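Annotated sample (chain length 135).
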Amino acid sequence: MTAFSQLAAPWVAKRIGLLNTMVFTHIPANIFLILAALAPGLPLALGLLLLRALLSQMDVPTRSAFVMAVVTPPERAAAASFTAVPRSLASAAGPTLGGAMFTAGWLAAPLVSCGLMKIAYDLMLWRAFRRLGSQ
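Output written by the structure step:
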């Protein structure tokens, strides 16, 4: 489903734009993540995680295309590195924080907090670049 998500991204982006594809597919994906953490049973949780997988990676190719579209050609290599490195560093801290929350007995907290932070990020991204995204 994740692979399908990335393959479907260009088709969706042609219809609603790169920025809107990044934001408006990522927000429902993260709502599914939060709901999976709160699901009363395994079948529902797995269903919500599969739905999340269907939408969660549409931001990957569209983010790269958006960054390349808004910077000049000589800046593209630096921009690609600048956007990739912080994501890698942030993903390295996640397991440590999640493990600490699990140890403290907050089993749903890692998924809920991650979903909420990603939704906040998406909304800030959309607000900051919506004028560029419509061009």
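Annotation: The mean pLDDT is 88.
Annotation: The first helix runs from residue 2 to 16.
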